[in-house]
Amino acid sequence: MKLDGILPFARKLIDKAVSPGDCVVDATLGNGHDTLFLAHLIGEAGLVYGFDIQEEAVSTTKKRLSEEKLGDRVQLFHKGHEHIFTSIPKSHHGKIKAAIFNLGYLPGGDKTIVTTPGTTISAIEQLLEIMSPEGIIVLVIYHGHQEGALERDALLQFVKQLDQRAAHVMQYQFINQQNNPPFIIAIEKR
After folding, report:
1. Are 111 and 105 contacting, i.e. CB atoms less than 8 angstroms apart?
2. Which H or E element spans position 41?
3. Which residues, other chains included, contact 115 with Cβ-Cβ below 8 Å and sequence gap of 6+?
4. Beta strand 23-26 pairing with 47-51
5. Using an 8 Å Cβ cutoff, are 33 and 56 in contact?
6. How many CB atoms lie within 10 A of CB 145?
7. Pairing state of beta strands 131-141 and 183-189?
8. What is the DSSP letter of 79?
9. Mind listing the pLDDT tens digit for each residue in 33-76?
10. What is the distance between the alpha carbons of residues 77 and 116, in angstroms, rounded to a whole number?
11. What is the distance between the alpha carbons of residues 104 and 156, in angstroms, rounded to a whole number?
């Protein structure tokens, strides 16, 4: 297939926005794959801020980073992404180049613990305030469960009303696949 899958496309968008030495955010640590990807992108002089409400996600991510000796490039927070503004030092406000969210539940974890529209929208608003111009937010939306469908609808409504003078918003998805395939919403700050 010549078309990028959802996760490769998400990473391609992030890769375009990030250079060595940059500050970035993994808003949903999950199993640490995106954190590891970001840690490689930002190099030795950059910093990844990672957030998750589940201790399991934080410890899995720490382990993954430790195995590749990248822990010094990442600051992990065992708290929700709705705390981005107060958790990231003011010295990095205006300098965040990218953020990624994988919404839904922790793969292999408790499926009753899910991301929610209120906290996700709050995190997006906070990121748009502290990101640098041309910073990008990538939301990978998994909507094949009841809470995911609710979050999808709320997020689509929210991003459609973002002022085009403040942000470019794009949706990338496969429209002929079965079983509610995930899709991407990308927001680039102007």
Report:
1. yes
2. helix 33-42
3. 28, 101, 103, 104, 105, 151
4. parallel
5. no
6. 14
7. antiparallel
8. S
9. 999 999 999 999 999 999 999 999 999 999 999 999 999 999 99
10. 18
11. 15
